[in-house]
Amino acid sequence: MGFHQKPSTFVSHVRLKVENLERSLAYYQEIIGFDILERTSTTVELTADGKTSILSLEQPKGVKPKKPRTTGMYHFALLLPTKKDLADFVMHLAKNDVQVAAGDHLVSEALYIKDPDGNDIEIYVDRDPNVWKWSNGEVAMTTDPVNFQELLTHQVPGESWQGLPKDTIMGHIHLYVAELDKTEQFYVEGLGFEVVNRFGGQALFLSTAKYHHHIAVNTWNGVGAPRPEENSAGMDYYRLIYNDEAAVKATIANLEKIGATITQENDRIMTSDPAGNRIQLSY
User: Fold this and answer.
1) Is the distance from CB of 7 to CB of 246 less than 8 angstroms?
2) Rounded-to-integer distance, Cα 58 and Cα 204, Å
């Protein structure tokens, strides 16, 4: 399918600012099941396969708690390889008394939990793309109850959650924004994504290669929602992977045409959407 492989453009990594690194690290290891790839006194790179970091944590100096009703990250989403993995994770959460929400989105089945800083995390599995329903360029999605009775039939007796499977990837990211018109222009004309679902004038779902969404944006925190404080806990940035250097250069040119700002931070090429959500452009 190649939704999260080149030549598709996809989200590969999310970096979070946290209030307490040790508290967050314990959560992401014990509840989510990440392993540590690298760490310093203020940062941790987390991995599922022991080779690639798909989530990193940083405790900045003077970090402040997240405030509600701002732009920023709604949730990041970890895509599990199989339905059995999701079933095992359900039982793992139950054993650890973790509060969970859930949704059947037609294209996928998902669980939702919160980390210690209030960041929302989606853990999901995709349905076979052959059963996704498309009409006039839009994919059908909704939020129905998850059939847990059916889901748990995918468990194997004697087997249980052993941490994130090594094939777990960053499936998508969902963001709060302040408005949709300039946001759509930024993601479509600037970054090269396609709108694949419009939700009631309040949200857009965007992808490449006809995935159900690599990125979603919404105004559910209010049109004109303010940006988070600079040192607020929450998302620092997310990383997009393009096919090659030429694709990144073309994207930079497209962003400059619509007035977006490009900056260089160490070896990172960075831009920001109209709501201030920071994005690293890579390949």
Assistant:
1) no
2) 29
